[in-house]
């Protein structure tokens, strides 16, 4: 919680896989929720309803949904059409070499 007050962005990762609970959304110390890629790898009507609903809940609580596992222009187009603005996946580029957190200073973006 102290890190968020210092200006760091806290992200809940892989929401929807095993341990994520909607009760976490009451906590104000994080701004982003990254949804598990299982919801985007084979997009269908049910997964779109879940993604869209979670996006609405998060927006209403001042948070942002990040969808993971985006590998095609079609996935990006579909998610954009339901209001998803933050995405991650191979469609946007390959993973970059890791580096030490000690090199990150407040205000820098990864």
Quick overview of this protein structure:
The chain has 110 residues and is of the alpha/beta class. The chain has helices at residues 2-5, 45-60, 73-81; strands at residues 11-15, 32-35, 64-67, 86-87. It has a 4-stranded parallel beta sheet with strand order 1-2-3-4, covered by helices on one side.
Structural class: alpha/beta
C-alpha termini separation: 20 Å
- Count of beta strands: 4
Helix content: 25-40%
Write down the secondary-structure element order: HEEHEHE
Shape: globular
Question: How much of the sequence is in beta strands?
Answer: 5-15%
Give the helix tally. 3
Most strands sheet: 4 strands, parallel
Radius of gyration: 15 Å
Mean pLDDT: 79
Extract low-pLDDT stretches.
none
Question: What do you see in this structure?
Answer:
The protein is α/β, with parallel strands linked by helices. The protein contains three helices and four strands. Strands 1-2-3-4 form a four-stranded parallel sheet, covered by helices on one side. Helix 2 (45-60) links the parallel strand 2 and strand 3 (64-67). It is globular. The two termini are 20 Å apart. The mean pLDDT is 79.
Write the layout of secondary structure elements.
Layout: H1 2-5, E1 11-15, E2 32-35, H2 45-60, E3 64-67, H3 73-81, E4 86-87
Parallel strand pairs: 1-2, 2-3, 3-4
Which short descriptors sum up this protein?
single chain, four-stranded parallel beta sheet, globular, 110 residues, alpha/beta
